[in-house]
Structures are given as structure tokens and as C-alpha cells.
Amino acid sequence: MPHDPAAFRLDGNALAGPLAPVFALDPTTALRVCPACRMQATVGELHVYGPEPGLTARCPGCSQLALRAVQQPGHLWLQLGTGQGAFRFTLPAAGG
Predict the structure, then answer these.
(1) Higher pLDDT residue, 28 or 23?
(2) Which residues of 44-79 are buried (b: 16+ CB within 10 A; e: fewer)?
(3) pLDDT in tens, 37-77
(4) CA-CA distance, 59 to 80, in Å (whole number)?
């Protein structure tokens, strides 16, 4: 019987449990390995430029893009690395 990959496919909600503890942590302590120069640095050690139109963090070894964070009313856009996609997070309402 042929293997059906769709039989094992889940939707993105399957990531909620595994990712919940990660997003509750202090992000500045997360270790990143640069794909360009292989330097290991925590997020807190990245070189950050901004604030407008958002914050751009670069590798302290070679200046390759590590992440971009752009905050808009009610949302935070997060791009990791040099990929083409970005994540949009809905922020809690002010005062709530």
C-alpha cells in the first residue's frame, strides 16, 4: 500500500502546545547560529538598528539579517532571517 503523506498532515494548530513555552520565555537569551558565518550569539548580543519603521537585528560577526520586528497598531510583524515570509501576531488591546 502506498504511503499517503496527507494521512500524517496536521494543521498549524498542532504547533500551539510545543511553541507556547518558547513564546513565554525571555527572547534575549535565545541562542542563534548565523547561517552565513556560523557565529553563535544570543538575541541580546545581536546588533539592532531602528526604531523606524521597525527594529532590524543583525549578526554581530557578519551583519547578516537575523530578524525584523515591525509594530503596527494591534499587530507585530516578525521576520526571521532572510526568508521571504513574515509572521503577523495580533497584540492584546491597550489596557486589556
Answers:
(1) 28
(2) eebeeeeeeebebbbbeeeeebbbbbbeeeeeeeeb
(3) 999 999 999 999 998 889 999 999 999 999 999 999 999 99
(4) 12
The CA distance from 33 to 66, in Å, is 10
DSSP class of residue 86? Answer: -
Residue closest to 59 by CA, chosen among 42, 47, 44: 47
- Do the bridges between strand 75-80 and strand 87-90 make them parallel or antiparallel, or are there none, so unpaired? antiparallel
CA atoms of 74 and 54, how far apart (whole Å): 15
Contacts of 54 (CB under 8 A, 6+ apart): 68, 69, 70, 71, 77
Among candidate residues 76, 72, 23, 80, the one with its CA nearest the CA of residue 46: 80
**CB contact at 8 A, 81 and 67:** yes
